[in-house]
Amino acid sequence: MPERGLPPELDAVARSAPFVFAGVVRRRSERQPLAPADAPTAVVRIDEVFFAPPTLGDLTGRDIAVRLAEPAPPARRRIIFFAGSLSYGAELAVTELARAPAGRAAADIRDRILDVRLQQYDERLRERLRRAEIVLYGRAGSVKPLESDKESADEPPPGEAAPRWRVADILVWRLLKGRVEEAPRVVYPFPRTQRWPDVPLFLEGQEGVWLLQPIGRDELHRPPAVPGAFVALDALDFHAPSALARIQLLLKALERR
Q1: Topology of the domain covering 132-255
Q2: What confidence score (pLDDT) does residue 1 get?
Q3: What is the SS3 assignment for 242?
Q4: Is 171 buried (19+), middle (13-18) or exposed (0-12) by CB count in 10 A?
Q5: Quick count: other Cβ atoms within 10 Å of Cβ 15?
Q6: Is there a smaller number of Cβ atoms within 10 Å at the N or the C end of the chain?
Q7: Which of 76-80, 82-86, 200-204 is predicted with the least confidence, judged by mean pLDDT?
């Protein structure tokens, strides 16, 4: 039985669309630089963002050019757009993947989209927990530049400098998965680089949940080798203390599989 407020044909696109927003169509637009000559476009004033890349900040109240997949809706009509990225710059432009009327069902659609995204988040987090060798709740002790700081074993991408590295000593308060014989150390690039744009950064006294991988397991990530150290290079490899209960539940679910 389909979820209330989200037609079955929108379920797949709701899981993958980078942009989902409601807005009022202001007018048809001039052709966008990256769009085909015959592609209809419209300028939409965003009044509610259901989902968007966080790096773009708050888009509420902004005009956005939408390359349309269907005939242009009437001006002043409020529409929910499911869209993919088209271009960034002084003006933001997206390409329509699907649309829905923003009527009485808008709140149900928003809630369903949030449910879908939370499910995706839990799926990704569950996979990170499965792959992690150590999962622990604790506090960062000393955080220092790596004394043997050298370039990684891999060459940095063209145009990007080799990263510098820091190491954080972790005081373990609760071990949730795996075994540690001594206080683990976490090596991470600082500052963030193009290669590691979302890597968690740590401060002395920072509390949370760490999902740790041995150095060298991932062929794409090659920090300097430090005996007994781990890495946490994914955005999902560190969580605030408020996530502890959720992570414990996900770990229990993994144990039952």
Answers
A1: OB fold (Dihydrolipoamide Acetyltransferase, E2P) (2.40.50)
A2: 34
A3: helix
A4: middle
A5: 12
A6: N
A7: 82-86
Q: In the structure encoding, which two tokens stand for residue 51, read together?
A: 């989902």
Is the pLDDT score of 34 beyond 60?
no
Torsion sign across C-alpha atoms 60, 61, 65, 67: positive
- The label of the residue with tokens 């799926």 reads 123
Q: Where are the domains of the chain?
A: 8-122, 132-255
Q: Is the pTM of this model over 0.70?
A: no
- How many angstroms separate the CA atoms of 187 and 158, rounded? 23
Main-chain phi, psi angles of 90, to 5 degrees: -60, -35
**Per-residue pLDDT, 45:** 94
The fold for domain 8-122 equals OB fold (Dihydrolipoamide Acetyltransferase, E2P) (2.40.50)
For the chain, percent helix, then strand, then coil, each to nearest 5?
20, 35, 45
Decide whether 8-122 matches 132-255 in CATH topology.
yes
Give, in order, the Cα–Cα distances in Å from 157 to each of 193, 201, 215, 221: 10, 21, 20, 12
| Three-state secondary structure call for residue 48 | strand
Please write the tens of the pLDDT for every residue from 176-233.
999 988 889 999 988 887 777 788 999 999 999 999 998 875 545 567 777 778 999 8
Q: What is the pLDDT averaged over residues 169-180?
A: 95
Quickly tell me which residue has 């979820």 as its tokens. Answer: 3
